[in-house]
Amino acid sequence: MIKSAPRTAAEAVVALKKLSSEVPVAAVVLGSGVSVLDKLLDPLVLPYQDLFGMAPGVAGHSGTLTVGRIAEGGPLVAVLRGRFHLYEGYDWPTVTLATRAIVEWGVPNLLLTNAAGGLNLDFSVGDLMVLTGYRDHLNPQLKETGLLPAIAKPATDCRNKLTEKLLSVGEVLAITQSSAESRPLRQGVYAGLLGPTYETMAEIEMLRKLKADAVGMSTVPEMLCCDGTNTTACAVSVITNVWRPDEAMGGHEEVLEASKNASKRLDRLFRAMLAELG
Amino acid sequence: MKLRNAKRIDFTGTCPEFDFFEKFSDATIDLIRNKEKAEVVIVVDRAFGFAASHLKDNAAEPHLISDHLNLTGDNPLVGPNNPIGERFPVVNNIYLSAADTIDQEETWTMGNPLSKLRTGIAAGVKYGAVPGPAELDLLYSMGAHFYNWNTVPTMIIAAHAGLKVLALAVPEGGVLPPQVLMAINR
Fold first, then answer.
1. Which residue has the higher pLDDT, A259 or A140?
2. Shortest CB distance from A143 goes to which of B73, B77, B91?
3. How many angstroms separate the CA of residue B64 from the nearest CA in chain A?
4. Which residue of A58, A197, A252 is in closest CB contact with B91?
5. Which has the higher per-residue pLDDT, A94 or A59?
6. Into how many domains does chain A fold?
7. Residue B87 with chain A: CB contacts under 8 Å
8. Distance from CA of B125 to the nearest CA of A (A)
9. Of residues A124 and B99, which shows the higher confidence score?
10. Among A34, A86, A188, B120, fewest CB within 10 Å belongs to which?
11. Complete DSSP assignment for chain A
12. Do A206 and B160 touch (CB under 8 A)?
């Protein structure tokens, strides 16, 4: 059964304007187990239940929106902890509800995060991959046709000024940080699959042939939702495992653990990035 | 694993649309998994569009399925999770090979006919879809050897319930060899 959110984006925007009269310079959406921007100054917190009329139901998502500053006099940001997924049975309007509210609120920048399986064999667990493209294998329209049209299409290029800024900030951080803390940012194509099953080895090999570098179950709806709006979106995948034929595949606990470990580097990256946006 | 003389539940017929799995999932899987303690689901499904590399004398023949591509655009586990399985099931290593089938001693005495079947990767496409030549070439280039409609959703539900799957793909107009049927029955 398809589930819909009880609130509209316009209703959510009313609640957001009550929470903060100032529009944040950026919104950040955190995926499974990704924990960054924990300590904002003067935080204002709104549970998703009050904002959208419902809370996320997947482990690793707290289901709150926090508005605050990253430093004294620094830019105001909104951090959304958790999202609604198609695999949970939510419809497309619900899965994109938070993004549409951010767009309607007038937030100019959206930073998306997700936990993703690594397809690129050069990647390591805990790497951060900036999305330069994505493949849409989860759009509900594909229920009508199957995935054949989707795999016949090339990846969508999603590079923009925000992506370039994120990569340049990452380059500077890689130079200035100690080698123990630093890892170069990865770039690549994210394949968004419906889930909730993890991929078979045959599917992993197919996605590699399609030049995808990471695979997950989110983010693509939000990227699509920002197209043609005044909100520029970029996304970072936390690589939680790398699919190899000779290694057993982990489950959701492994995803959460790897996300936690990479979160420190992502936190530094986002703070540096947001400081530049402010 | 020993299945000889084990209780069996036979399902005959097709499962034409994912939506109908809603009524297939709770009661039936509960029956299979909890009450009868099943370990294996045997799926026999029609398969179509065999790659030239998987034809014998230009004719398709039954295959053991070793893996799949879910290209249906859907997944029968979408929705609230049935607590019988994990929210995010790992579906690798679910398909049984001839080597790890069922009561090996018995099947080996018959010459292990399952091992004489070729193995292949199934592309699960939307129910009723018939890929054209260009789409078939695309499927082959993605690693599939044939396509079918029902195996993939059935397999996903079985994997979610912790079951292994022995999946056989039978080409249109074909039948399983008697030796294979005997091996399965044993």
1. A140
2. B73
3. 15
4. A197
5. A94
6. 1
7. 58-59, 196, 252
8. 6
9. A124
10. B120
11. --B--SS-HHHHHHHHHHH-SSPPSEEEEE-TT-------EEEEEEEHHHHHSS---STT---EEEEEESSTT--EEEEEE----GGGTB-HHHHTHHHHHHHHHT--EEEEEEEEEE-STT--TT-EEEEEEEEEE--TTHHHH-SHHHHHSPPEE---HHHHHHHHHHHHHHHHS-TTT--PPEEEEEEEE--SSPPPHHHHHHHHHTT--EEESSSHHHHHHHTTSS-EEEEEEEEEEE--TTS----HHHHHHHHHHHHHHHHHHHHHHHHHH-
12. no
> What domain range is A127 assigned to?
9-277
Domain for residue A23, yes or no?
yes
Rounded to two decimals, what is the model's pTM? Answer: 0.90
Strand-pair category, B118-125 with B146-148: parallel
Is the CB of residue B157 less than 8 Å away from at least one CB of chain A?
A: no
Residue A209 with chain B: CB contacts under 8 Å: 141-143
Residue A214, in any domain of the structure: yes
Domain parsing of chain B, residue ranges: 18-185
Query: What pLDDT score does A105 carry?
Result: 98
Listed in sequence order, the residues at least 6 apart from B23 whose beta carbon sits closer than 8 Å to its beta carbon are none
Binding-face residues of B in 7-46 toward A, CB within 8 A: 22
- Residue A92 Ramachandran class (φ > 0 left, ψ -120 to 50 alpha, else beta): alpha
Out of 3.40.50.1580, 3.40.50.300, 3.40.30.10, 3.40.640.10, the CATH code matching B18-185 is 3.40.50.1580
- Which of A68-72, B110-114, B165-169 comes out lowest in average pLDDT? B110-114
Region A88-94: what's the mean pLDDT? 93
CB contact under 8 A, B88 and A147: no
What's the pLDDT score for residue B140?
98
Give the gap in angstroms from C-alpha A65 to the nearest C-alpha of chain B.
24
Closest by Cβ to A89, choosing from B69, B79, B129: B79
Q: CB A202 to CB B121 under 8 A?
A: yes
* CA-wise closest residue to A96 among A85, A82, A107: A85
Q: Which of A88, A142, A201 sits opposite B92 (nearest CB)?
A: A201
Interchain pair A147, B71: CB under 8 A? yes
Would you say residue A3 lies in a domain?
no
Q: Is residue A109 part of a domain?
A: yes
| Max avg pLDDT among A258-272, B69-83, B132-146 | B132-146
